[in-house]
Structure formats: structure tokens, C-alpha cells
């Protein structure tokens, strides 16, 4: 078993994100028309795009569900910043060979600082565009039908996302929303790309 986790890069990414978020929130707090904080939780559905991973064209990956948690701040009527955590724990990939089937159980965690833009022309339905940058952790556990034991690897690197969505304000403080984004890893995780559909609820303080 070989486990490779770049703890220094993970710590550095988290530190940078916290520092940037603190600056943004501090600046936002002095903006007169800022609306305040919000938090949300929802489910996500990953539509995979991983078939070419590791050079195999005939890998089969099942799209799967995940969990999404976010904390945000309304900088103005149009702009907000979000710290978003997304966890996709049960990604199953398999590749048949002459010696047996290679099975890969994967987990993808992302945490990103995102900028969200919503045109201010409707107080109930608010379409938005969102873009984010942060860190991605990808853990893979590989087994083969004909070989006992397993091999495990965890890799951390940077990632980014871009997407569109719409929020529906049920009340002034409660909203439901749908976000469709494309997420892709960078560096050692450049082969990890997928569409992520997020549906959730948010409370605006």
C-alpha cells in the first residue's frame, strides 16, 4: 500500500483561502449596502468525465451523489463571495482486462473560494454566474479481482470551477437554488474533470 498526501500543499491552500476570505469579508463589512452573511447546504450530482484517466479509454465510471456546504457574504445586491465545500465520496470506476477487472473506489473533496454575480432585476428569481478557485483532494483505492490486497493513493492539488445557476427566494431569508458548474483539477489532478449539479437551501441572515 502506498499513500501519497501532500500535506504542505493542502495546508498552504487552506491558509491562502482563509487569508483571502478574511480580506474580502473585511472589505465587504465596510460597504454600506452589503446585505450580510448566508449559509447553505445541499446535495450534488457528479456527471463524470474521467474515461481517459491513466490512459485507458474503456474505463467505466458511475456518476454519483455528494454533499455541498457553503458560507457566503453579500458584498452588494449583485455580488457575493462564497467559501464552498463539496464532497463526493462514492465514485466507482472499473476497467476489464484479460487478468481480471480493475476496480477503483474514489473520493473527491473540493474547497473553493468563489465569486458569485447575480444581476439585480428580480427580487424573487435571481440567475447567477459563479467562478471559483481552491483545492482538490482525490483519494483512490485500487483492487483487482485476481490479486489479493489493494493499493491506495491520495493526491492534493489546486482546482477551479465555472458555472451558472438560479436562486429562488421563498422568503427574504430563505432561498432554494440550483447550480450547474464544470469543475476541473490542476497540476497532478489535471485529468480530474466533471460536471457538478448542486441543489440546496440557504439561509440569509
First and last CA, distance: 47 Å
The order of strands across the largest sheet is 1-3-4-5-6-7-8-9
Classified by CATH, the class is: Mainly Beta
Q: Report on the biggest sheet.
A: 8 strands, antiparallel, barrel
Structural class: mainly beta
Classify the fold: give the CATH topology: Porin
Mean pLDDT: 80
| Rg, nearest Å | 19 Å
Description:
The protein has 205 residues and is mostly beta strands. It has one helix and nine strands; from the N terminus they run H-E-E-E-E-E-E-E-E-E. Strand 3 (64-74) and strand 4 form a beta hairpin. The protein is elongated and about 60 Å long. It starts with 6 loop residues before the first helix and ends with a strand.
Concise overview:
This protein has one helix at residues 7-29, and strands at 36-48, 60-61, 64-74, 79-97, 100-117, 125-144, 147-169, 174-185, 193-204. The protein is mostly beta strands. Residues 1-5, 30-34 and 51-56 have low confidence and may be disordered.
List the SSEs and their pairings:
Layout: H1 7-29, E1 36-48, E2 60-61, E3 64-74, E4 79-97, E5 100-117, E6 125-144, E7 147-169, E8 174-185, E9 193-204
Structural key phrases:
1 helix, 205 residues, Porin, elongated, 9 strands, single chain, mainly beta, 8-stranded antiparallel beta barrel
